[in-house]
C-alpha cells in the first residue's frame, strides 16, 4: 500500500493474519485491554477523549490502537488520516479481510489507527442479518487479543444504540463513558447502562461493565458544571475519574488541523488534563491487574 500524504504508513500491506512489524517490535504485555469509549448521546467529547487519551497513553510508553468504529470517521480525521478511504473495518466485519490489514501507524510513536469511513454504515445493515450479529467485532478483534501486540485498544463508538454500538460493547472488556458537564448529563448514561445490561443478558459479553466515567466540557465560570460533576459523582462514586476535561477553544480547534490537542497546544490546559487522565487511567488499570493477579 503506497504512502499517502507523507503519513508514516507501511509501504506494503501486511500479509493476512500478520501484524505490522513496527507494532510487533516491542515487548508484548501480559494482558491487553479493549476499552469502548461510548455514549449514545452525541456531542459529549467521545471522539475527543478517545483520540487525546490514546495519544497521552502513547506518550507514556503504551502501545495504543484506536479503532474508529463510527461511520462519520471523526477519530480518523482528528489524526489527519482521512485520506485512507476504503480501509475501514467493513470487509473485516463481514469476514472478507483480517483486521491486521486495516491497521495503520500514525505519525505518533506507539499510536496506531484502524480508520473509518461511510462504508461502516452499510456494514451495520448487513451485520444485522447475520446469526452472530452481536459478536462480529469480537471475532474480528480476536487475533489482536491472542497476539498481545497492543496494551490498549480504544474503540471510538458511534453516538447511537445500533448494531455497531452493541458490537463494541460485546467486544470490550470495559466501557469508558464521557459525559458533558451540562443539563441532562445523566440521561445518556442511564441509556448506556441499560444497553450494557442487555448485552450481558444476551450472553454476548457477560463481563462488560462501565469501568470509568469522564466529565468533559467543564466550564469553571459556571455553577452548573460543578453541580453536574457533583451529581454524577454522587450517583456513580469512584467510577467517575478525578480528572475533569475543560472546555477550551484549543481543544475544539485541534481536530480541524488533524492533530490531537497534545500536538496542537501541548502546554495548554486541555493537554495537561488529558495527560492527567492518562496517568489516572494507568493507575486504575495497574490496581485492577494487582487485584485480578
What is the quaternary state of this protein?
Answer: single chain
The main sheet comes to:
8 strands, mixed
The amount of beta strand, in percent, is 15-25%
Query: What percent of the residues sit in helical stretches (DSSP H or I)?
Result: 40-55%
Poorly predicted tracts of residues: 1-18, 22-29, 289-293
Alpha-carbon Rg, integer: 18 Å
Physical arrangement of strands within the biggest beta sheet: 3-4-2-5-1-6-7-8
Shape: globular
**Average residue pLDDT:** 86
Order of helices and strands: HEHEHHEEHHEHEHEHEHHH
Number of helices: 12
Distance between the termini: 41 Å
Query: Strand tally, please?
Result: 8
What is the structural class?
A: alpha/beta
Protein described:
- The protein has 293 residues and is an alpha/beta fold.
- 42% of the residues lie in helices and 15% in strands.
- The protein is built from twelve helices and eight strands.
- Strands 3-4-2-5-1-6-7-8 form an eight-stranded mixed beta sheet, with helices on both faces.
- The chain is globular and about 50 Å long.
- It starts with 20 loop residues before the first helix and ends with a helix.
- The relative contact order is 0.17.
- The N terminus and C terminus are likely disordered.
Amino acid at each position: 500500500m503506497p504512502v499517502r500524504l507523507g503519513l508514516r504508513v507501511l509501504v506494503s500491506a501486511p500479509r493476512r493474519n500478520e501484524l505490522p512489524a513496527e507494532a510487533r517490535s516491542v515487548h508484548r504485555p501480559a494482558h491487553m485491554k479493549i476499552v469502548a469509549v461510548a455514549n449514545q448521546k452525541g456531542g459529549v467529547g467521545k471522539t475527543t477523549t478517545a483520540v487525546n487519551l490514546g495519544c497521552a497513553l502513547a506518550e507514556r510508553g503504551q502501545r495504543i490502537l484506536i479503532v474508529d468504529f463510527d461511520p462519520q470517521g471523526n477519530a480518523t480525521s482528528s489524526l489527519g488520516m482521512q485520506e485512507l478511504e476504503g480501509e475501514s473495518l467493513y470487509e473485516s466485519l463481514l469476514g472478507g479481510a483480517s483486521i491486521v490489514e486495516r491497521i495503520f501507524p500514525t505519525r505518533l510513536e506507539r499510536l496506531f489507527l484502524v480508520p473509518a469511513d461511510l462504508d461502516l454504515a452499510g456494514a451495520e445493515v448487513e451485520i444485522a442479518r447475520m446469526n452472530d450479529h452481536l459478536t462480529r467485532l469480537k471475532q474480528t478483534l480476536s487475533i489482536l487479543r491472542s497476539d498481545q501486540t497492543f496494551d490498549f485498544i480504544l474503540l471510538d463508538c458511534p453516538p447511537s444504540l445500533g448494531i455497531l454500538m452493541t458490537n463494541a460493547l460485546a467486544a470490550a472488556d470495559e466501557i469508558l463513558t464521557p459525559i458533558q458537564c451540562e443539563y441532562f448529563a445523566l440521561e445518556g448514561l442511564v441509556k448506556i447502562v441499560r444497553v450494557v445490561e442487555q448485552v450481558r443478558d444476551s450472553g454476548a459479553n457477560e463481563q462488560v461493565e462501565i469501568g470509568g466515567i469522564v466529565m468533559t466540557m467543564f466550564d469553571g465560570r459556571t455553577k452548573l458544571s460543578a453541580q453536574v460533576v457533583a451529581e454524577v459523582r454522587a450517583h456513580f462514586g469512584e467510577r467517575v475519574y478525578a480528572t475533569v476535561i475543560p472546555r477550551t477553544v484549543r481543544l475544539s480547534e485541534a481536530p480541524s488541523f488533524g492533530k490531537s490537542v497534545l500536538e496542537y497546544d501541548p502546554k495548554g490546559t486541555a493537554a495537561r488534563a488529558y495527560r492527567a487522565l492518562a496517568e489516572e487511567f494507568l493507575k486504575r488499570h495497574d490496581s485492577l491487574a494487582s487485584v485480578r493477579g
